[in-house]
Amino acid sequence: MNPDVNDPRAERIVAPAPSGPPPERAPRVAVVGGGIAGLAAACGLAERGVDTVVFEREEGLGGRLRGWDTTLADGGTATMSRGFHAFFRQYYNLRGLLRRADPDLDSLVPLPDYPLVHRSGARDRFSGLPTTPPWNAFALAATSRSFPVSELAAVNLPAVLQFLDVDVPGVHDRLGHRSARDLLEVTRFPRTARHLAFEVFSRSFFAAPERLSAAEMAVMFHVYFLGSSEGLVFDVPRSPFPQALWNPLEGYLRRAGVGFRTAVRVERVTRGERLRHALTWRDVGRSRREEFDAVVLATDPRGLRALVADSPGLGTAAWRARVAGVASAPPFLVSRYWLDRPVRPHRQAFLATAGYPTLDNVSVLDRYEDQARAWAARTGGSVVELHAYALPGDHDPDLERKSLWEQATAVYPELAPAREVDSRHELRADCALFPPGGYRDRCTVTTPDPTLVVAGDHVRVDLPVALMEGAATTGLSAANALLSRWGTPGHDLWTVPRQGRGAVLRALARSFRQPGQRPEVRSR
């Protein structure tokens, strides 16, 4: 039994049976990308005796969760990253990957609560709720001021019930043509509830609700709330990402025989002379070439599009067109400030916000991260991080940084008089976008070439997984696809239940759907 699985209804996905003969020698595989997906694939392969090499364009591992050292204005050293990430208890495959190097997950600490605050002053929180669906949802509606009884009578029950009848990929057939914004409007939830209980989480996909598939939002609520009894409690690393996660995992993988090529750029993948594929990669201005039996493409969407475009011999025309259509989410900004004074003692480590122009959350790192805590203890200050998940394409970076700070001072007024000791700002646009109608055209793990597989949180696996767990799941799935072909047992996966938990509630939801009719267009 997976030690991270506390939900008795969680499902075990048995690894595919070997479909080919065992190889005469250990296959050699290149994994392009050293983020979660690439590290999961490398782990899955190396543990089965495959000669595996990871290629990463940055100096450190972790992908979008990597970290790097920076020297502050006061002479201290800090590890900068691209911002806060929540490690939910439902991330079974990711947590299993981390347990390879940290069996007890001592590197993670729980955050028992995190408030959600609207600009109007409305607040919600998820502490103290039952963990079992649907009682968690009923308790939230009963106790939250965002769900006033006077407005609940107007709720569109047939539309709301669709959140209780989630199955993958079926939910994408039913709801995927709509945007999350459309679904929120048709549910007729109280407006504050839409902001606090829905839009806050939809923007965690790095897109405004109008650009996110309604099916993705329904799956998200299934994963985190309505389909899992793991609850909404999550953990965070007690140290910066490299120290807590990637350095130990790299050590484990090296001991398993994985090789690493960091700070290199893979330029193209071509046909090999001795083995199936040849990778051309650049290191310190020099071009090198290595051959492999198989390749795992575990890059972000932009990197995948570029590498396939520069490798005209990969795949079929139809598959290449699908890769070219992989969408990237809008830019996001992370601003971290080292301040000369502390925030108020009652401030939570993480606060989600709604109703502000661009501010999505505020994190106080010295509440949970040891490095930030040590800096705050030494200086009497605090380390605060601000996130803007989905910026307009025409934003001005300098104005946005200033605006984000001003929005934060409206949330935490004690920030206004604080003096900035130093700051760092990360503006990126390399996350995946899950737009309405995009599910069917999404890349899958397998490709027309059985020796070429794809992994990443943008890859479709027909399981209720998302974000970091999606990356880990596709990485292991990519390893499994290759291992099966080589007659080698793969790795079992775990997932939250693949459909809504209650048969009665699912039947009720379906009773409102007529043949050929979209469920959300039917009113009460």
Task: Name the descriptors.
524 residues; alpha+beta; FAD/NAD(P)-binding domain; seven-stranded mixed β-sheet; five-stranded parallel β-sheet; 20% strand; disordered C terminus
Q: Any overview of this molecule?
A:
- This protein is an alpha+beta fold.
- Among the domains are: 11-64 and 241-328 and 433-491, 3-Layer(bba) Sandwich (FAD/NAD(P)-binding domain); 126-231 and 500-521, no CATH class.
- Helix content is 31%, strand content 20%.
- It is built from 16 helices and 22 strands.
- The protein has helices at residues 36-46, 92-99, 135-143, 149-152, 157-161, 170-175, 180-187, 191-202, 214-226, 241-255, 301-309, 317-324, 370-379, 397-411, 467-485, 503-511, and strands at 11-13, 28-32, 51-56, 67-71, 77-81, 87-88, 108-111, 116-118, 123-124, 234-237, 259-262, 265-271, 277-283, 286-292, 294-297, 332-339, 350-354, 361-364, 382-388, 420-428, 452-454, 493-495.
- The strands form six sheets. It has a seven-stranded mixed beta sheet with strand order 9-8-17-18-19-16-20.
- A hairpin with a 5-residue loop joins β12 and β13.
Could you tell me the strand content as a percent range?
A: 15-25%
Shape call = globular
Architecture of the domain at 11-64 and 241-328 and 433-491, according to CATH? 3-Layer(bba) Sandwich
- Overall pLDDT: 91
Radius of gyration: 23 Å
First and last CA, distance: 44 Å
Largest sheet: 7 strands, mixed
Write the CATH homologous superfamily of the domain at 11-64 and 241-328 and 433-491.
Answer: FAD/NAD(P)-binding domain
Structural class: alpha+beta
Give me the side-by-side strand order of the main sheet: 9-8-17-18-19-16-20
Percentage of residues in helical conformation: 25-40%
What top-tier CATH class of the domain at 11-64 and 241-328 and 433-491 fits best? Alpha Beta
Could you tell me the number of beta strands? 22
Poorly predicted regions: 514-524
Number of helices: 16
